[in-house]
Specification:
Distance between the termini: 56 Å
Helix content: over 70%
Shape: elongated
Strand content: under 5%
Radius of gyration: 19 Å
Order of helices and strands: HHH
Largest sheet: none
Structural class: mainly alpha
């Protein structure tokens, strides 16, 4: 129905945050800037939302005319649409975020290992 809107909103929010963070961050040698890491979240959420939107278009749930979402026409269907967004959409966005946090942990340890190797050399 409209679960792809939640990861799309996450991508927009992360993109705006990325721009704000980029203005205030300082360069550190050997470390990936946090704005770059936020860019990863933007790309993951954005591509996930695009794939989900394509799947919904494929199944006829998104149409090229107003109101664009077939379930937005009838108030009874809107309740089901919002429920799906609140459950499936939030779960998908949370899963993307958890995977991104896992990536950050791996990168953190790789940066530590790299800094230690440079120190020893």
């Amino acid at each position: 129905m409209a679960c792809f809107l939640v990861p799309a909103a996450e991508a927009v929010i992360a993109g705006v945050s990325k721009k704000g963070v980029k203005k205030h961050e300082k360069k550190e040698s050997g470390k990936i800037p946090f704005s770059t890491k936020l860019g990863w979240l933007v790309k993951m959420s954005g591509f996930g939302a695009i794939l989900l939107a394509f799947e919904h278009v494929w199944h006829g749930e998104v149409v090229p005319y107003f109101p664009f979402l077939t379930n937005a026409v009838d108030p009874k269907d809107r309740a089901a649409m919002f429920h799906e967004m609140a459950t499936n959409g939030v779960l998908m966005a949370a899963l993307i975020t958890v995977v991104w946090i896992g990536m950050l942990v791996v990168v953190h340890f790789a940066e530590k290992k790299s800094a230690k190797e440079v120190k020893e050399a």
